[in-house]
Amino acid sequence: MTLVWYTCLFWLSTSCLWTIQAQDSAANVNIRSPHRGLAPTNVDFAFSLFKHLVSLAPDRNVFISPVSISIALAMLSLGTYGPTRTQLLQGLGFNITEISETEIHQRFQHLLNLLRESETSLEMTLGTTLFYDRSLEPLESFSADIKKYYESEVLAADFQDGAKASRQIKEYIKNKTQGEIEDLFSDVESPGVILVNYIFFKGMWAQPFDPVSRVQNFYVNETLTVEVPMLFQSSTIMHLYDPELACRVVKLDYEGNGTAFFILPDRGRVDTVISTLTRDTIQRWSQTLTSGQVNLYIPKFSISGAHDLTDVLTGMGIAGLFANWSDFSGITQEAPVKLSKVVHKATLQLDERGMKAAAHTEVSPEQSSEPHTILFNQPFVILVFDDFSWSSLFMGKVENPA
Q1: Contact 19, 283 (CB under 8 A)
Q2: Percentages helix, strand, coil for the chain, rounded to the nearest 5?
Q3: Within this chain, do residues 341 and 388 fall inside the same structural domain, yes or no?
Q4: Same domain for 165 and 112?
Q5: How, if at all, do strands 193-202 and 339-350 pair?
Q6: Which of 209, 216, 256, 349 is least crowded, fewest Cβ atoms below 10 Å from its Cβ?
Q7: What is the 3-state secondary structure (H, E, C) of 247-308?
Q8: Cα-based distances in Å from 10 to 114, 119, 212
Q9: Are residues 175 and 243 in the same domain?
Q10: Are 393 and 258 in contact, with CB atoms under 8 Å apart?
């Protein structure tokens, strides 16, 4: 499983993201930095979505691409009307009395261009497609708008034969992701429209890990221990211990603009730490991280998350997408259609690759003390951000890397 951790044209400090205040007016943000105008709204939505998913899946791995989900739902709003559209946009965090719908879509259009047009060492493939029953006829205006703003499309499937429709959708996504994403969901259970969002990533660390992994115990809980290969590097790393949340934080950079935060809560506190995460938390960490010599061990593993987002979106107050009164007349003006599923899949492979050859790190006199050892051998959290657009690319809870 590989996943796209994305970068753009030049490096900007990650801490800049968290200095944007949510109360900044949309117009001012857009004038100063159009490629970051969505950042506060998207990141707040990201943390809310992540927390809801974790609460619905205790003791399980959770992995999502929040910015990809925001893009998919904003695209879907083009096909809605009335209270359905209002509830969806407000659920994404937009105050539609302060920002026009056209401006929302223009900002997402710009963000997507940034995420897709990088010429760096990182790759990212992401997309959203709306599948509809072939008995329907989508409006040309809807097809044109989602193509214009989101480079997306609507495709027909034979929903009268659920197994056949499922195969059609799986084959489409498999081809779009060069075989990286398969088995996206089970057979189609009911007719309607299905929104499918996918993303995979390949990236390289700015500072690679040792190519030889080490097998160690990972303590899933008090009764379950598994053996996993551990990535290792001994180098100068940004890190801290947060006594307020009882967790250790490590910040690692990818080639380009990708930044990863690895968060190691004290034993038994992973869900507690996740419940407290906000933009303010990341800002505080970014301002207090210190650089020091660290012996770092992180599991070498693959993780993916495949989610039908119906329950979590309903729990977040966007139940109108699935209600009897939902209005998708922006997609088709034929018989009222229902949204059957919102399916999202994100995939990540965590390995040792980097652009530079691994080398011995010289320790300066100021760093001549014994290195810290940070061992990720119990449940932890991973957050990945794109520094240029200030987007929350990935959020994950790793309960069991095996």
Answers
A1: yes
A2: 30, 30, 40
A3: no
A4: yes
A5: parallel
A6: 216
A7: EEEEEEEECCCEEEEEEEECCCCHHHHHHHCCHHHHHHHHHHCEEEEEEEEEECEEEEEEEE
A8: 12, 11, 31
A9: no
A10: yes
Q: What is the pTM of this model?
A: 0.86
Angle at the Cα of 214 from the Cα atoms of 210 and 216, rounded to 5 degrees: 140
pLDDT tens, residue by residue, 180-221? 777 666 666 666 789 999 988 777 888 888 888 889 999 999
Asked if 90 and 238 sit in the same domain, the reply is: no
Instruction: Report the C-alpha gap between 270 and 33 in whole angstroms.
Output: 35
Residue located via tokens 């609507």: 154
Residue range(s) defining the domain that contains residue 274: 210-299+367-398
Beta strands 258-265 and 290-299, pairing class: unpaired
Tell me how far CA of residue 123 lies from CA of 80, 170, 383, in angstroms: 32, 22, 18
- Range 177-191 burial, b when 16+ CB lie within 10 A, else e: beebbeebbeebeeb
Alpha helices in 58-124 (DSSP H): 66-77, 82-91, 101-116
